[in-house]
C-alpha cells in the first residue's frame, strides 16, 4: 500500500500497533485496529478497511514546558559560550532590545506552526514577565489562544526569578494578568536566596488568592547544595496549598547524596507535586566548561520519581535560542532523545504516557484518548516497533486532526530573516 494514501471520510485502519497502556492494558504494543467515522471521531469498525502493515499509532502530543516567546532568536543572539549564565545574559539583552509585540508574535507563530505539523495538540509555555514585558506578551498570548483554538490548546505561565518576587511589588500586577488569561498559571524560577521560604509563602498565597496553579523552574544546576525543590515541597505542605504544583528541571537531584535526594522525592510524592523533565536543554547547558568534556547529563531522577508514583512528563523546553540552540517543537524528537538520555527503554512499558496523557492531566488539557467517541487526533508512523520508531526521526509520519491528514509542511526559516537583522 501507499503508506500515506489514506481514504477520506469513514474508514478502519487494520493491523496497527498501539501502546497497551493507552488502551488500559498491560504489556508493550498491542496489534489492533482503529476506526474513524465521517465526523472525524474514533468509532466502531467502518466498511472501508485499510491494512496499515503494522504501523505504530499514537495520540497527538502535549508539550507542557516550552518558551514560545524566546524561540528562534539564535540567529541574532547566539549564546557566546554555551553556558547557563551566557544564556541568561544574552536573552536579557535581546528581550530589552527586540521583544515588541510583533517580534514575539511572529516567532511564536513560527514555533506553533512547527509544533502543529509535528503532531502536538496542546502546549504550555512560560512567558518572561519582568515588566514591561508582561504587558506586551500576555495580551499577545491571549490573541494567539484565540487564533489557534481548535488546533493547539494553549496555556501560559509567567516567568520571573524568585529575587524579583515580592507581595507588594510589580509582580502583583503580573499575577492579575495571569488570572485574566484562560488557563493561566503562576510561575517562578527558584534558586537559593536567604529568604526563599518567605518568598514561597507569599507566592503560594498570591496563587491561592487568584485560584491559580503553580509551575516552577527548579534547581537548574549541577550544584548539589541547591535544594529549592525541597523548600517548595516543605512550604506547600506547611501552607496547605492545594492547587496543582509542577516543577521543571530539578537537575541538582542527580548530584546530591543518594539518601538525601530520595528523601526529597518522598516528600515530593507526599505533597503531590508533578515533575517535567527537560533533558535536551539540560544536556546542552549543564556541566559545560570550555575545553572540558561534560561529565554530568543534567537529567533529573525520573525512574526514582516514577517508582514513587510521582507524575512525570517530558517536554521540549527551549527552541533555537541561547538556552538551547536546536530543536523544532517536535515531541517525537523529545521522545527519542529522552529515551536515549534517560534509559527509558527497559523496565516499564508506560513511558509513552509521559509525552501524552500525563502532561495533559497535569495541565488540565483534554485527555488524549483512543476510545470510540474521542476526536481522531493521531500520529501515524511507518515504524512497526519501538526500535524502529526510535531509530529514525519519523519524518514521513501522518498527522490526523479530526480524522483528516494535515499539511505537514514546515515553515521556512527564511521567513524570520528580517527579524535577525541588526537594528540600525
Automatic annotation (TrEMBL):
<keyword id="KW-0479">Metal-binding</keyword>
<dbReference type="InterPro" id="IPR032466">
    <property type="entry name" value="Metal_Hydrolase"/>
</dbReference>
<dbReference type="Pfam" id="PF07969">
    <property type="entry name" value="Amidohydro_3"/>
</dbReference>
<protein>
    <submittedName>
        <fullName>Amidohydrolase 3</fullName>
    </submittedName>
</protein>
<dbReference type="GO" id="GO:0006209">
    <property type="term" value="P:cytosine catabolic process"/>
</dbReference>
<dbReference type="InterPro" id="IPR011059">
    <property type="entry name" value="Metal-dep_hydrolase_composite"/>
</dbReference>
<dbReference type="InterPro" id="IPR052349">
    <property type="entry name" value="Metallo-hydrolase_Enzymes"/>
</dbReference>
<dbReference type="InterPro" id="IPR013108">
    <property type="entry name" value="Amidohydro_3"/>
</dbReference>
<dbReference type="GO" id="GO:0046872">
    <property type="term" value="F:metal ion binding"/>
</dbReference>
<keyword id="KW-0378">Hydrolase</keyword>
<dbReference type="GO" id="GO:0035888">
    <property type="term" value="F:isoguanine deaminase activity"/>
</dbReference>
<dbReference type="GO" id="GO:0004131">
    <property type="term" value="F:cytosine deaminase activity"/>
</dbReference>
<feature type="domain" description="Amidohydrolase 3">
    <location>
        <begin position="200"/>
        <end position="398"/>
    </location>
</feature>
Amino acid at each position: 500500500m501507499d503508506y500515506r494514501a489514506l481514504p477520506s471520510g469513514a474508514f478502519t485502519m487494520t493491523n496497527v500497533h498501539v501502546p497497551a497502556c493507552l488502551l488500559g492494558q498491560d504489556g508493550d504494543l498491542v496489534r489492533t485496529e482503529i476506526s474513524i467515522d465521517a465526523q472525524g471521531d474514533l468509532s466502531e469498525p467502518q466498511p472501508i478497511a485499510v491494512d496499515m502493515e503494522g504501523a505504530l499509532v499514537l495520540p497527538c502530543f502535549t508539550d507542557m514546558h516550552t518558551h514560545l516567546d524566546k524561540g528562534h532568536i539564535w540567529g541574532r543572539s547566539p549564546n557566546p559560550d554555551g553556558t547557563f549564565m551566557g544564556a541568561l545574559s544574552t536573552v536579557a539583552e535581546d528581550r530589552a532590545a527586540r521583544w515588541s509585540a510583533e517580534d514575539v508574535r511572529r516567532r511564536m507563530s513560527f514555533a506553533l506552526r512547527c509544533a502543529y505539523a509535528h503532531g502536538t495538540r496542546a502546549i504550555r509555555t512560560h512567558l518572561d514577565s519582568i515588566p514591561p514585558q508582561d504587558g506586551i506578551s500576555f495580551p499577545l498570548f491571549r490573541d494567539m489562544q484565540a487564533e489557534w483554538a481548535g488546533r493547539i490548546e494553549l496555556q501560559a505561565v509567567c516567568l520571573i526569578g524568585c529575587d524579583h518576587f515580592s507581595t507588594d511589588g510589580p509582580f502583583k500586577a503580573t499575577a492579575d494578568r495571569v488570572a485574566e488569561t484562560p488557563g493561566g498559571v503562576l510561575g517562578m524560577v527558584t534558586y537559593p536566596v536567604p529568604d526563599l521560604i518567605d518568598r514561597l509563602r507569599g507566592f503560594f498565597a498570591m496563587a491561592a488568592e487568584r485560584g491559580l496553579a503553580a509551575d516552577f523552574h527548579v534547581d537548574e544546576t549541577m550544584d548539589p547544595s541547591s535544594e529549592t525543590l525541597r523548600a517548595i515541597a516543605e512550604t506547600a505542605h506547611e501552607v496547605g496549598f492545594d492547587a496543582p504544583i509542577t516543577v521543571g528541571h530539578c537537575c541538582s537531584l542527580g548530584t546530591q547524596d543518594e539518601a538525601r535526594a530520595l528523601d526529597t522525592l518522598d516528600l515530593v510524592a507526599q505533597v503531590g507535586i508533578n515533575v517535567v523533565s527537560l533533558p535536551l536543554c539540560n544536556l546542552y547547558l549543564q556541566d559545560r566548561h570550555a575545553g572540558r568534556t561534560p561529565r554530568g547529563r543534567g537529567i533529573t531522577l525520573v525512574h526514582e520519581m516514577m517508582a514513587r508514583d510521582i507524575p512525570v512528563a517530558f517536554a521540549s523546553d527551549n527552541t533555537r535560542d541561547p538556552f538551547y540552540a536546536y530543536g523544532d517543537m517536535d515531541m517525537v524528537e523529545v521522545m527519542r532523545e529522552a529515551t536515549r538520555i534517560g534509559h527509558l527503554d527497559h523496565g516499564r512499558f508506560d513511558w509513552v504516557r509521559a509525552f501524552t496523557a500525563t502532561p495533559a492531566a497535569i495541565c488540565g488539557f483534554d485527555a488524549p484518548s483512543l476510545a470510540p467517541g474521542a476526536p481522531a487526533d493521531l500520529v501515524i508512523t511507518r515504524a512497526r516497533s519501538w526500535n524502529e520508531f526510535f531509530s529514525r526521526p519519523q519524518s514521513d509520519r501522518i498527522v490526523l486532526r479530526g480524522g483528516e491528514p494535515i499539511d505537514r509542511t514546515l515553515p521556512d526559516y527564511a521567513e524570520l530573516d528580517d527579524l535577525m537583522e541588526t537594528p540600525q
